[in-house]
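Slide 14.
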Amino acid sequence: MDGLIEDAVTVTSALVANSVEHARCASIRVIVGRPTADTVRLGVVDRSKVLPVLRTEFSGDPLQGRGLLIVDRLTARWGTELYPWGKQVWGELWAEAR
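Slide 15: predicted structure.
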């Protein structure tokens, strides 16, 4: 799964940046899991219950507002899980065998 490393770093960075920017919590949790032998799931958990929105139109700063678009393009799938106290935003990378 060495071929997934760069995408994993980029996806994790985008998820962390979104959480820091939008949730504005004192702490977040980064989760890395292997739900199957050829899948890596990267997640960020924070205490905000505001769901992320995938934007496709941008104005203003060209470096802002593209985090989920990056996640959407690099992952096989992504989503959110709501908890009573917050949420997790996650993305899955699949090895070529899948």
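Speaker note: The chain has one domain: 2-94.
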